[in-house]
Amino acid sequence: MSHHLSNRAWDIELKGNQKIVLLALAHMGVQSTGMSAATVARLAFMCGLSDSCVRAQLKTLAAKRHISLVPSELEGGAHMYRLDRLLAPAEPTE
Prior knowledge:
By secondary structure, this protein is mainly alpha-helical. The chain has helices spanning 3-10, 16-27, 40-47, 51-63, 84-87, and strands spanning 35-38, 68-70, 79-82. It has a three-stranded antiparallel beta sheet.
């Protein structure tokens, strides 16, 4: 669990379902690598969304370059996601 990644996720402007899925991935992420392992079913449970809604949000987050799907050989249907936008240096605030 990474509080740092979760805190970074709060600062990204996204619509509701996209943000909650990103927050769930960040919650399960490893700070040092920015990697998060999750199944669609687990994300759906955590976010209170349907499986199809989670899949759509993951696709949108990937299209917006917030996350990348990383090939993995994890068992149980889990995928590895790299939290690209959360690893980028923080943009300066005024």
